[in-house]
Each structure stands twice: as structure tokens, then as C-alpha cells.
Specification:
Layout (H helix, E strand, L loop, with lengths): L20 H8 L3 E5 L2 E4 L1 H20 L3 E2 L5 E3 H7 L1 H5 L1 H4 L3 E4 L2 E5 L4 H11 L8 E10 L14 E11 L2 H21 L5 E4 L10 E7 L5 E6 L5 E3 L20 E4 L6 H7 L11 E7 L5 E7 L11 E2 L2 H6 L19 E5 L8 E4 L5 E6 L9 E3 L17 E16 L10 E3 L5 E3 L1 E8 H11 L17 E5 L6 H16 L4 E3 L6 H11 L3 E5 L1 H5 L2 E6 L5 E5 L3 H6 L2
Parallel strand pairs: 3-7, 15-17, 17-20, 25-26, 25-27
Antiparallel strand pairs: 1-2, 4-6, 5-6, 7-8, 8-24, 9-10, 10-21, 11-12, 11-21, 13-19, 14-15, 14-16, 18-19, 21-24, 22-23, 27-28, 28-29
Helix pairs in contact: 1-10, 2-7, 2-10
The protein binds one RNA strand of 77 nucleotides through strand 14, strand 16, helix 12 and helix 13.
Length: 566
RNA sequence: CGGGGAGUAGCGCAGUUCGGCAGCGCACCUGCUUUGGGAGCAGGAGGCCGCGGGUUCAAAUCCCGCCUCCCCGACCA
């Protein structure tokens, strides 16, 4: 590609809205341009990177036995009503992308479980046709509350999504394993460090699932990882072994204290400062509504956050108004069952010491609240987040929290869609209709552009790994306008490399050496080849490895052959 | 959705306090010089000062409304 003819403008100054390095450099280097918040155009360079990543994904999907299809962006709203996800995902997610086309209601697809289930239901009737896994690489739409960091979190983005259909749970697990392995191969080939972590499924539904996390400073997620064994899980799903109870500073008996204007753990800790109360000595009581809209209180130690189980949601102001028995800031677990409130508790609450907690009375807290004497728990589970240093659930060594970006996610969906969508069944060997056992698998393809850029850059610009670089090599003639030798040598190298299939970006612009070098470093192709009068006089051209800055010289006559061999 | 900040040429910004010709750097066009790490000189083009209304002889600037963008926060009692 001749640079003089490419749609490319590099910028010396990054736009003010670009916060992080990957975003700044992708814009400055002429890879992407912003159209609206969280919406980007891929310019020729950016499109090439996207194509490289897509091709890697495509090859690994095909290798795993998945078949490529293309589903529409526009999806009938009716399908989402059938699966029940219009409600569960919430109007705030979809209202922005609902649209009307000739009187029919559509959504711009945020994902394709409904469409693919409907399609496979119609075209797959027999167990003989199973298993089948399909995938597509396509634009997706999400009503992101806050798009951020350029391509990292957008309202429109490109995703690879795959869906597997099996006749049994065992088959589903095999399809899942094939995708899981394919994901490892994709991230390996992209040159990214990644950690598959156990995760919660959230709104998609289903059981077993893993997130593929790439540790990164700009990550918006965290996962917990054992410093000793290979346990890792995202913060929603992470568990810890029981911690050593901290010495209690509570009272033996249940005592009520007047604690005016002290809603919240921190304020109560402050109030009892004289007793050396720590947040871990408090019992945090969070009011939520369960699937049926019934009030539930979840108990966790005061120095931990509550993980609200999927299907439940935390109280809003209006919910407190409807449930006067639960006083915001002063909830305690005592006597809740009698008032029709179910009590769930994290395992860490079972240590059986007296707690400091709310008194169910405005401006009052209690000390000495004791499990089994003062309050009861209806259901135990893992409801508390983990913190650095918590013991690993497998080996009890300390856990650490790692900031990271979610680059991929694989789910075993089970029968979530095949039992809610009409006719999502096949005829089994015994002649009976059975629902499909499904899995779904996503990779943020456009997000990977940002993640790879973030992991591969320096002060001067990008430093692409060769597998995803937009071109293989940057050919930089210096002063070709003044030196026929330079022009001729560069042109010959360009022709010879191009002839053998090397993708060359040829800087044939009439620009100064400084401009060409600066742009080459910014654009960040793995190898730069400089053809200049100085070198040609000695019969050589120079080669620079962008990522390391290493330079060496290559005889001009052998240049093309040597460079093509890389 | 709550709080804060910002919209002036493709990009980065000044000008707004105190109303009076629309500015600077980069980029772009023409010419000459220069030529191995973002060159110099000369000339030139490019603006709905976010949008709408109002005040005024006069509005980028003051007032009202709206839009867009960025940052922080957003169930943790």
C-alpha cells in the first residue's frame, strides 16, 4: 500500500476526549475516528487490525467445528418477549435501541440467543443433526450508561458470538470445552496474557461459565486469584475459605444503643470507636427483593460488600417506603421472619460471635446480636465479596485481586432458552421431543483492538504484535525525490516483497525523514526498513524492530529475500 | 440517573471576567529554500463561536431554554 494514497492522517495532538494510551494512539495514528460517544469508525488501518483479529477468531472457531453464519442486527421485539428478556434486561438497556420499521417493533440486537434459537429450532429437527455450533462476527448494540476508553466500552461494537446446541448435558459440556479451548488459542495468538476465571452468569442465564480476563490497568473488572494454587474467579463469583474471626468487641447480651444519625457501617464504627469496633465486627444487613418481589435481607460481615443474587434487586427508595419494618441504615436481623422477611446469610456470618448491627429502630443499633439466640438464618450461601488476603477456598493461601478487562465469556446455558422459546426442541432417539442443551460464547473483537493496543505501546506509539499488525512491514525511503538510487531501490524492494505476499506499507510521501520516522513509530508496524542514500552508498538498508528499537543492516540486494523470510 | 467540567477551523487551544473587526499552534494549499528523527521564509484557503430564543446601537462574550461531549459517582443501609 502506498502511503501517499491511503486515507490516513496522523495527529500530533490527541483529542481531548481520549483518556487512555490505547485510545489516544489509535486516534492519533489514524486507526479510528469517533462518530458519537461510544461509536467509532474504523479507518483503513483500524479495519485491517480488526480483519486480522477476526481472521484469527474465524480460524479457531472453524477449527473447533463451529460454522459461520450471519444474523441480522434488526430483531423483532416479539422474540425478546418470548424469552422474557425484555423485562429481565430492563428498559434502560433496550429503550435506546428500540426502533420501528413499517409498523413492527424491533430492537438493535445486543446479542442473538433468541434469533439463533428460533433459527435452529426451525432447521434442526433430529438428534441426528446434533451437535451443531454456529458463530458470527457482527455489530452489537448496548445501552452503555457510560461509554469509555474508546473501543474498550462502546454503545456499538463488534463481537464474535457462538451458540452450541446439543442433545444432552454431556454433549453441551463437550461443546463448551471445545469453545473454551478455542478461546485460549485465540488469546494466545493475539499475544495477550489472559486468565479464565469462574464467573456469575448475570442476565444471560445459565450455570457454569468462565470469563477470559486480560489483566490491565484500564480494566473495569476485577478478579480474585490465589497467590499459590490456580484458583481464580471474578469478584462476583469468588469465594473464600472461612476467615479467622477477629476478636469481638461486642457485648455478651443484646444491648440497644442510641446512635443518632449513624446510618451505615463507617458511621457506626466511628460511634463505637472507644470500643475499638472494626467494620468486620459489624453485621451488614442489605434489603433486597427476590424474584417474586418479596422482601429479603442478606447478611454479610461489615467489611464486605453484598453480591445480590441474580434475579433479585436491591431496595430502591420506594421499596423502603412500602416496607416500613425495614429502616434504611438501621436494619438488624432480629425477628425479621416474624415480619415476613426471609434472611439469607453469607457463610462468614456463621462464626457465631456476637455482632454489632442495626436495631430495626431509627437511630438505634445493638451490640451482642448472637446467631441462634437473637436471630435466625433461613438460607446460607456465598453472598459476600472477597478482599485481598482472604484465604483461598481450595488451599487457604491468600487471594489477590487483579484489575482486568473482560475479553471473552463462555456460558453453559442449559435449557434456559430452549424451554422458554416456542418449539426449541428436537426429536430424540427414543422418538420424544426434547429441548436443546445450549451454550453461548462471546469475544469482544473490537474491544480486543483496544486491549492489544493498551498492552503494546510505548511513548512514541503503538507496537503491534505481528499477528495483528495492519501491515507486516513499513518501508521508508528517505529523499527519494533527490536520489534516483533510493527511489529505485525502495521501489524494487516494495515490488519484490509485494510479489511474495508480504503486506508492505510504503511511505512514498514527499515528507522529511523526521516526519516519516515519527509516523512509523506512531503507527507501530513490527518492522521498519529504511532505504537512504547513506546506507545505499555502503550497499545496505536499515532494519528496525519497532517493539525493541533494535536496528541492524541488510545488504540491499538480499533485502527483499531476507525480509520476506521473516 | 446524581454531581462537576467543557463545546470557538480537521486536531490542540486563547479570547468570555469587563459586550465593540474571529485569533494562535499543528495540519491543509502555492512558491522558494531545506533534507537521516515532527524544517525555514513568503503568500493563501478554511468558522452557524453547539442549537434556539431574549437583552442591546452592537453578543463568542450578558439572560433563559435545549443539545452534545468528558470526568466522578450510581443498590452496600
Amino acid at each position: 500500500m502506498r502511503m501517499s494514497r491511503m486515507l490516513l492522517r496522523t495527529l500530533r495532538d490527541a483529542p481531548g476526549d481520549a483518556e487512555v494510551a490505547s485510545h489516544r494512539l489509535l486516534v492519533r495514528g489514524g486507526y479510528i475516528r469517533r462518530v458519537a460517544s461510544g461509536v467509532y469508525t474504523f479507518l483503513p488501518l483500524g479495519q485491517r487490525v480488526l480483519a486480522k483479529i477476526s481472521q484469527i477468531v474465524r480460524e479457531e472457531m472453524n477449527r473447533a467445528g463451529a460454522q459461520e453464519i450471519l444474523m441480522p442486527v434488526l430483531q423483532p421485539r416479539e422474540l425478546w418477549e418470548q424469552s422474557g428478556r425484555v423485562e429481565s434486561l430492563g428498559p434502560e438497556v433496550y429503550s435506546a435501541f428500540e426502533t420501528e420499521c413499517r409498523g413492527a417493533d424491533f430492537v438493535l440486537g445486543p446479542t442473538h440467543e433468541e434469533v439463533v434459537t428460533a433459527m435452529v429450532s426451525a432447521d434442526v429437527d433430529s438428534y441426528r443433526d446434533l451437535p451443531v455450533t454456529v458463530y458470527q462476527i457482527q455489530s452489537k448494540f448496548r445501552g452503555e450508561a457510560r461509554p469509555r476508553y474508546g473501543l474498550l466500552r462502546g454503545r456499538e461494537f463488534i463481537m464474535k458470538d457462538a451458540y452450541s446446541f446439543d442433545e444432552s448435558p454431556a454433549g453441551m459440556k463437550e461443546s463448551y470445552k471445545a469453545q473454551y479451548d478455542a478461546y485460549c488459542a485465540v488469546f494466545d495468538r493475539c499475544g495477550l496474557p489472559y486468565v479464565p476465571v469462574e464467573a456469575q452468569s448475570g442476565a444471560i442465564g445459565g450455570d457454569v461459565n468462565h470469563e477470559f480476563m486480560v489483566p490491565s490497568d484500564i480494566g473495569e473488572d476485577q478478579f480474585a486469584r490465589c497467590t499459590s494454587c490456580d484458583y481464580s474467579a471474578n469478584t462476583e463469583a469468588a469465594q473464600s475459605a472461612p476467615r479467622e474471626p477477629t476478636p469481638s468487641v461486642s457485648t455478651e447480651d443484646l444491648v440497644t444503643h442510641h446512635t443518632p444519625d449513624r446510618p451505615g457501617i463507617d458511621l457506626v464504627v466511628e460511634f463505637f470507636a472507644a470500643r475499638n469496633l472494626a467494620a468486620s465486627g459489624m453485621l451488614k444487613c442489605i434489603a433486597v427483593l427476590d424474584e417474586k418481589g418479596e422482601p429479603v435481607v442478606i447478611l454479610v460481615p461489615g467489611d464486605r460488600d453484598v453480591i445480590v443474587p441474580s434475579g433479585m434487586r436491591a431496595f430502591a427508595d420506594a421499596d423502603f417506603a412500602r416496607h416500613p419494618e425495614l429502616i434504611r441504615g438501621y436494619i438488624g436481623p432480629m425477628g425479621l421472619q416474624e415480619r415476613g422477611v426471609r434472611v439469607l446469610a453469607d457463610h462468614a456470618v456463621a462464626v457465631g460471635r456476637p455482632w454489632v448491627t442495626g436495631a430495626n429502630k431509627h437511630d438505634h443499633h445493638v451490640t451482642g446480636a448472637t446467631l441462634g439466640r437473637d436471630f435466625e438464618v433461613d438460607e446460607w450461601g456465598s453472598f459476600a465479596t472477597v478482599a485481598p488476603g482472604d484465604p483461598c477456598p481450595r488451599c487457604r493461601r491468600p487471594l489477590e485481586l487483579v484489575r482486568s478487562v473482560e475479553a471473552g465469556h463462555v456460558f453453559q446455558l442449559g435449557l434456559r432458552y430452549s424451554t422458554t422459546m416456542p418449539g426449541a426442541t428436537f426429536t430424540a432417539e427414543n422418538g420424544e421431543d426434547q429441548p436443546f442443551w445450549m451454550g453461548c460464547y462471546g469475544i469482544g473483537v473490537s474491544r480486543l483492538v483496544a486491549v492489544i493496543a493498551e498492552a503494546n505501546h510505548d511513548e512514541a506509539g503503538l507496537t503491534w504484535p505481528s499477528q495483528v499488525a495492519p501491515f507486516d512491514l513499513h518501508l521508508i525511503p528517505l529523499g527519494a525525490e533527490r536520489s534516483p538510487e533510493v527511489a529505485e531501490a525502495a521501489q524494487r524492494i516494495y515490488d519484490e516483497l509485494t510479489a511474495v505476499g508480504v503486506d508492505v506499507l510504503y511511505d512514498d510521501r514527499d515528507a522529511s525523514a523526521g516526519v516519516k520516522f515519527a509516523d512509523a513509530d506512531l503507527i507501530g508496524l513490527p518492522i521498519q526498513v529504511v532505504v537512504g542514500k547513506k546506507g545505499l552508498d555502503r550497499g545496505v538498508v536499515e532494519r528496525k524492530i519497532r517493539a525493541t528499537g533494535t536496528r541492524d543492516e541488510v545488504p540491499v540486494d538480499e533485502a527483499a529475500a531476507m525480509l520476506a523470510a521473516l
